[in-house]
Amino acid sequence: MSLRRIVLRDFVIVESLDLELEGGFSVLTGETGAGKSILIDALQLTLGGRSDSGVVREGAARCDIAAEFGTPANLLPWLEEQGFSNEDNSVLLRRTVDTDGRSRAWINGSAATLAQLKVLASELVDIHGQHAWQSLTRADAVRALLDGFAGIDTAPAHKAWGQWRLRRKALDAATERQNSLRQESDRLAWQIAEVNKLAPGADEWIELNALHSRLANAQSLTDAAESALAALDDQDDSAAALIHRALTALQAQAHIEPAFASTIEALESAMAQVQDSVHSLHQYQRHGDQDPSSLETLDERLALWISLARRFRRPPEDLSALHSEWKVELAQIDQALDLETLTQAERSAWKIFQTEIQSLSKQRQKAAPRLAEAVTDTMQTLGLQGGRFEVALNKLDEPQAHGWEQVEFLVAGHAGVTPKPVGKVASGGELSRIALAISVVTSQLGQAPTLIFDEVDSGIGGAVAHTVGQLLRQLGKDRQVLAVTHLPQVAACADQHLLVSKQQHKQQTLSSVTPIATEERVLELARMLGGSAQSEVSLAHARELLTA
Length: 548
Known about the structure:
Layout: E1 3-11, E2 14-20, E3 25-29, H1 38-46, E4 62-70, H2 76-82, E5 90-98, E6 103-107, E7 110-111, H3 114-124, E8 125-128, H4 139-150, H5 155-176, H6 178-196, H7 204-216, H8 218-234, H9 239-253, H10 260-287, H11 292-311, H12 319-337, H13 339-380, E9 388-400, E10 403-412, E11 420-421, H14 422-425, H15 428-444, E12 450-454, H16 462-475, E13 480-484, H17 488-491, E14 496-505, E15 508-516, H18 518-528, H19 536-547
Parallel strand pairs: 3-13, 3-14, 8-12, 12-13
Antiparallel strand pairs: 1-2, 1-4, 4-5, 5-6, 6-7, 9-10, 10-11, 14-15
């Protein structure tokens, strides 16, 4: 499930490229400046790397990059969860960048974010750059290499660290603010007690005003009800009497004139509505009378409501919500004042964090000698016979989110020398070989189906270069390996050889990538050997490399 195809349009100095890649071990070679790393740069863009307008070929409006991968089984649930189709068992990544530096991305034809591309990047490709040795002197990178080799998940420890820090911060803040918090608590408690005298309901202010309006206009409302009853039912010419008279007249002749039926039905409906209205008005008369003291009691409550609202400088309708907010604030302050509970919470979080980082330490202590042994063995094949690699776990004075220890790589370039920190004892060439040894060892245990090595073989040559080629070829038996190299010994070991070349076209320099085999490959290896590509000696040496 590796990289199957990469397509470029107007990328840097590539006008158009459509390249199919094979499994196994493939190399990219070419003269200096031909653009051997262009494919890798393009691939990094499709995997969520940073972009800018400089990647657009001069004279073009935008560049377009696409990379097709087989779909690893472990990615299927993620693709489904994110809503990306996977009908043909492939992952197609596409990215465009215009001359303003704006970029867009797609996964299997659907718009995607850079964060989603980066999730795929860690699952699809593992890239080892030509300056990989520089990371051997960075504490975070060294620790990540050991953790990756051991398959250690540091996320739970980081989460526990974050929880502990929050608890610790809350405890420290509460301890420092005890006096001010007590004053704030007293103030809120007094305010709440004052408003408790009223105990305002959530919608009570609106209801009280509506009730007050009804009580203040009680006589007018009663008079209106009586007038309506008289008009509807209590007089000879009331609505009910007139409708009844009309119904009687029409019903008497309905057997002669069928057209009266609809009118009779409408009048019967009107009569029913009048009777319902009369019933409702009688109900209102029976229950509408209010105790004379009700208005006085209501006035007193409204006066208290308005007084409190003025005291706290808030609109009366906000008083109920303000009362609830104060209760919440008081509960939070009381919680902050409870140092015992905060202390227990901090201690509990600390214990959880301690458990997590102790687990990390145990896993690292088991993995460190295994990594040291594997890298030491690989160093023997890379011209560092007798050399030794060690992984030191130095305990910190205080634990950090990543654990109790700092990880450090130590190396001895040959026998009889005490291993010392990598950056202090190794030469540039040795660092490159050590970095390559670590890359090979850690790559063998990784999950990404495609491994890319970008000139990691710099600083070596001769028999060691041939060994590097054999190591990469061995890796290619299990996973797809793509390497940019300037060493003919490495290139000769490849299953697929890709030649990067540049040409002049209409005053522009353009780059192309072409698979080569047989005699074309012999000619390229002869060129890489440094002699005349057409000389019999160089050609013979190239053929010998391929045969070996």
